[in-house]
Design brief:
The chain is an alpha/beta fold. It has helices at 24-27, 31-39, 56-63, 68-71, 76-82, 122-136, 185-200, 203-210, 233-237, 248-256, 275-285, 298-304, 308-329, 395-401; strands spanning 2-8, 41-45, 92-102, 111-114, 141-147, 150-155, 218-225, 241-244, 260-261, 291-296, 336-341, 358-364, 387-389. It has two domains: 2-72 and 230-401, Alkaline Phosphatase, subunit A (3-Layer(aba) Sandwich); 92-225, no CATH class. The structure holds zinc ion.
Length: 404
């Protein structure tokens, strides 16, 4: 028996008048996901427990079968795992975004122009972060270059209980009310202020400004926590697993769960990602592993950018190039099960994540399902006879252990 988990990050959304009251999933052409919804077992799942910030870390931890209330310890420690950064128990890891602030003048009056510094390239960003580490790093504060705008800072013997805000939640807003607060916040504020001068004087940014691109002119800290420790997936389900994703977060979660990480060339975590490459890598991996987890980031990025057209395109590409390719390739396997779902909603209108339940479908190759004419979108949430998981981390149990 083979298991495939297909996660379209942030695919879920809310009805929009621009789409005639439809959502992006409803508007998008998705014949493959619709077939799974029609012939499979649809349901509703709350991947973000009440009271938790609706992040991909919490959502994918739930989908992997781990109770966030028991195990969740912040986003950055998970990304650190993937970057191979060894965290000691007393260390605190922080996500460190390169962002673009605008407005000048008093710091508090500056505006969060772009949480991704215009999706700065990894090459440019790593030059900037290395410069920052040289000038602001020391034996207690270390900066680790990552991908595009996503980097890490580890504070040895650091303070964890600082209130930080994800920058993608405050696009277009004055930053004053969202600067770090609480014990240890002063140090973060000083680092952010000192970073501005260093970043702006760096030739990388001078070049970006000349080309009319957003300068990466400030660091922004959030998503902090201490080392994550969870029981490995194999011990729970006696199944081997592999994970395919472009983003450090999900890859870090995969490593914590004891999965092998399969890196796919051209997987960018953005709308230009190598969808087909990811699907083919998944099919190949199914020859070796019992379960393969495929995560695609693109719809979420489009949601954060408030871009309806691009989100619909990302969903259609996910359907055709990932789901479609995998469904065709699975013909070569006898018994298999597919779990398809968004990890959470990233409504284009509000450009950030929300914690409302999302639709899922489980398709079992051994079960002959009558065609119900369903389509894969939020309308499934209102169907009568569907499975409902208020505790999202229970869904994996059901997916693995449910009798056909
Ligand atoms: Zn997500």
């Amino acid at each position: 028996m083979k298991y495939i988990v297909l996660v379209g990050d942030g695919m879920a959304d809310r009805p929009m008048k621009e789409l005639g009251g439809k959502t992006c999933l409803q508007k998008a052409r998705t014949p493959h996901m619709d077939r799974l919804a029609s012939e499979g077992n649809p349901g509703k799942v709350r991947t973000i427990p009440k009271g938790f910030d609706p992040g991909s870390d919490v959502a994918n931890l739930s989908i992997l079968g781990y109770n966030p209330s028991k195990y969740y310890s912040g986003r950055a420690p998970v990304e650190a795992v993937y970057r191979g950064i060894k965290l000691r128990p007393e260390d605190v890891a922080f996500r460190c975004n390169l962002v673009t602030l605008a407005g000048g003048g008093r710091r508090a009056d500056e505006i969060m122009k772009d949480y991704s510094a215009g999706h700065v390239s990894t090459k440019e960003a790593q030059l900037l972060i290395r410069d920052i580490n040289k000038k602001l790093g020391d034996k207690n504060i270390v900066f680790y270059p990552g991908m595009s705008y996503r980097h890490l800072m580890v504070w040895r013997n650091g303070k964890e209980k600082i209130k930080c805000t994800p920058p993608h939640d405050i696009t277009g807003k004055k930053i004053g009310a969202y600067l770090p607060t609480g014990e240890g916040a002063d140090l973060l504020r000083i680092l952010m202020e000192q970073s501005a001068e260093i970043l702006l004087s760096n030739p990388v940014n001078k070049n970006r400004v000349k080309k009319g691109l957003f300068p990466a002119n400030s660091l922004w800290f959030w998503g902090q926590g201490r080392k994550l420790s969870i029981p490995v997936f194999r011990d729970k389900y006696n199944l081997s697993g592999a994970l395919i994703s472009a983003v450090d977060l999900t890859k870090g979660l995969g490593i914590c769960a004891g999965f092998d990480i399969i890196n796919v060339k051209g997987a960018t975590g953005y709308i230009d990602t190598n969808y087909i490459g990811k699907a083919n890598a998944a099919l190949k991996a199914l020859n070796k592993y019992d379960l393969v987890y495929v995560h695609v980031e693109a719809p979420d990025e489009a949601g954060h950018n408030g871009d309806i057209k691009t989100k619909i395109k990302a969903i259609e590409d996910f359907d055709a190039k990932v789901v479609g390719t995998i469904m065709k390739g699975l013909a070569g396997f006898k018994d298999y099960r597919i779990l398809l779902l968004p990890d959470h909603a990233t409504p284009v209108r509000i450009r950030t994540h929300t914690d409302e339940p999302v639709p899922f479908v489980i398709y079992d190759s051994r079960v002959r399902h009558e065609k119900k004419g369903y389509t894969f979108n939020e309308s499934l949430l209102r169907k009568k006879k569907i499975e409902v998981f208020d505790r999202g981390y229970k869904l994996m149990d059901y997916f693995i252990r449910k009798k056909p």
